[in-house]
Design brief:
The protein is of the alpha+beta class. It has 3 helices and 4 strands.
C-alpha cells in the first residue's frame, strides 16, 4: 500500500539532522526533495547509520528497506518548504529517514492512502 505524506519544513535553514554524515545540507525546495528521494530509494544512508551503531550486525535489516518508486516533490511555501512524499515504505522508516535528514525541523501535515 502506498501513502502520500505532506511534510513541511517551517525553517529550512535549521532543518538539519544531528549527524553531519546523514543530515541534509540542502538549500531550496528541489534540493530538499532530492535528498528525501535519495534516502528513500537507496541503502547508502542506512548503511552509514548502521555502521555507526554499537552492534551493527544486530540492527534489524528491515529498517533498511527502500522504495525505488518513491516520488518526492518540493515547493516553496512563504519562508518554508512543503514536501509531498509518495512511498510504500512504512511510516516508521520514513520518519527515521526524515529525522536523519532534518532532525526535528520537519512537521507532518497530513497523510493519505493512494
Amino acid at each position: 500500500m502506498r501513502s502520500r505524506y505532506f511534510i513541511s519544513l517551517p525553517e529550512p535553514s535549521t532543518a538539519r539532522g544531528s549527524d553531519p554524515d546523514l543530515s541534509s545540507m540542502a538549500n531550496g525546495a528541489e534540493a530538499f526533495a532530492r535528498d528525501v528521494q535519495q534516502v528513500l530509494s537507496s541503502t547508502h544512508a542506512f548503511d552509514r547509520w548502521r555502521a555507526k551503531q554499537s552492534e551493527p550486525d544486530d540492527v534489524d535489516p528491515g529498517l533498511g528497506g527502500i522504495d525505488l518508486e518513491a516520488k518526492v516533490t518540493g515547493s516553496q511555501a512563504d519562508l518554508g518548504i512543503d514536501l509531498v512524499i509518495e512511498t510504500a515504505l512504512a511510516s516508521n522508516i520514513l520518519q527515521q529517514r526524515l529525522r536523519w535528514l532534518f532532525g526535528n525541523g520537519w512537521r507532518l501535515r497530513d497523510v493519505a492512502q493512494i
